[in-house]
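Following up on my earlier thread - several people asked me to post the actual chain instead of describing it. Fair enough. Here it is, all 104 residues.
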Amino acid sequence: MKADVFTVLAEPTRLRILDELRVRERSVNELVGTLELSQPSVSKHLRVLRDAGFVSSRVAAQQRIYQIKSRPFKVLDTWLEPYRRLWEKHLDALESLLDNQEDP
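Reply from S.P.:
Thanks for posting it. Predicted structure:
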């Protein structure tokens, strides 16, 4: 069973890993060095991210190279869209109110 996207992304270490992979694909050892975490810890978080569909890996020589997969983020963005519209509506109303106030 796939983990809930919010549960996966709620873990700060996983967010840090995704931030690193957003820049470029990386090996486990590169992530260990950059994040200053143990190899087992990084591997555990990568497994959760992979199982949830946020990352994929390929084998290069004796290393696994990880990269971000865009599909889960598109699903998340689609889910967020109604909330984004709601806040934009409220912010537009606030902007209009502030624009119509008289200067003291």
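The chain has five helices and three strands. That should answer part of your original question.
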